[in-house]
Specification:
The chain is an alpha/beta fold and 303 residues long. It folds into 2 domains: 161 residues, Rossmann fold, CATH 3.40.50.720; 122 residues, N-(1-d-carboxylethyl)-l-norvaline Dehydrogenase, domain 2, CATH 1.10.1040. Helix content is 51%, strand content 12%. The protein contains 13 helices and 9 strands. The chain has a 6-stranded parallel β-sheet, with helices on both faces. The chain has a 3-stranded mixed β-sheet with strand order 7-8-9. Helix 6 links the parallel strand 5 and strand 6. The chain is globular and about 65 Å long. The two termini are 30 Å apart. The relative contact order is 0.10.
């Protein structure tokens, strides 16, 4: 299948690479040409413009950092919608606003373009091995037609119904992850102040009812001092803002979600938007004057 892929960031690059390795004809584009070097070496092709990405493509995939970036790429003059052919499919893999994806899907359908929204979850590191989870929204017949492509990029592919549903669930998963991250930091700090060996405390929490995926992965990055999860404060704050917007629209009070958003906004102001999201725990480390560190971490590389 001929695939165009736009957006080669920490997530898009491994997703596109997996498609190339599976033998698909993949043409890539990004604002940074150097981001596609390894994909081209593996057999992918480069296009300098969107018209080249869409030319003859059965599918065009976007994996971009914000709704603004997606709008600029797909709906502006000379963008994806102006260059895709009828009967082809746009797959949006960015984490985006659920109302915006519904609006853009309506525009695409009027042009005869099928649409799937397919944000991913589970940690960027899993994208490299094709084990990330794909959350799919869209018409069931379109989903079934392109499911084989999604299964190359993700180990588990879950259809959540109509366009917009996957975006909401993606934001929910991220909100929960950020809440868990703040909670894991606070729990480990209590243990550290008591003088408990943090390596042992990590293992105890992992084997307890207080465990979470975030503790199993991101707590290791805190204990190692790297914090490097390839996910920035800017992206975390964006997703928490989306959660707040959804909650306001649906009249759902988010006490933990709102508090977590405030904590992440403070961390972004302190450390900058490009800081890794686990550095939210560094605020607590600095306030207590006690780094959370243990020998031998990470046990398994998470990057």
């Amino acid at each position: 299948m001929k695939i165009g892929f736009i957006g080669l960031g920490n997530l898009g690059c491994p997703l596109a690479m997996n498609l190339v390795k599976a033998g698909h004809d993949v043409t890539i584009n990004d604002l940074r040409p150097e981001a596609g070097a390894d994909i081209i070496k593996a057999g992918g092709s480069w296009s300098d413009d969107i018209a080249g990405i869409c030319r003859g493509a059965d599918v065009v995939i976007t994996a971009l950092p914000s709704p603004e970036a997606s709008r600029a790429v797909v709906e502006h003059a000379g963008g994806v919608f102006d260059n895709m052919t009828k009967g082809s499919c746009w797959i949006e893999m960015s984490t985006t606003d659920f109302e915006d994806i519904q609006r853009l899907a309506g525009i695409a359908r009027k042009k005869g373009i099928d649409v799937l929204e397919c944000p991913v979850t589970g940690g960027v590191h899993l994208a490299h091995t094709g084990e990330i989870t794909v959350l799919a929204g869209g018409d069931i017949d379109v989903y079934e037609r392109y499911k084989p492509i999604l299964q190359i990029m993700g180990k588990e592919v879950i259809h959540l119904g109509s366009i917009g549903n996957a975006s909401v669930v993606k934001v929910v998963t991220n909100m929960l992850a950020f809440i868990h991250l703040v909670a894991a930091g606070e729990g480990m700090m209590l243990a550290a102040r008591q003088g408990v060996d943090l390596g042992a405390a990590y293992k105890a929490i992992r084997a307890s009812s207080g465990n979470s995926f975030v503790h199993e992965t991101e707590s290791q990055l805190i204990l190692s001092g790297s914090y490097n999860v390839n996910f920035t404060m800017d992206l975390a704050c964006k997703d928490l803002r989306f959660a707040g917007k959804i909650a306001e629209k649906l009249n759902v009070p988010l006490e933990l979600g709102s508090m977590t958003r405030q904590i992440f906004e403070r961390a972004r102001n302190l450390f900058g938007g490009d800081a890794w999201s686990p550095q939210v725990v560094k605020m607590l480390e600095d306030a207590c004057g006690q780094p959370l560190r243990a020998q031998g971490f990470p046990e398994t590389l998470v990057s």
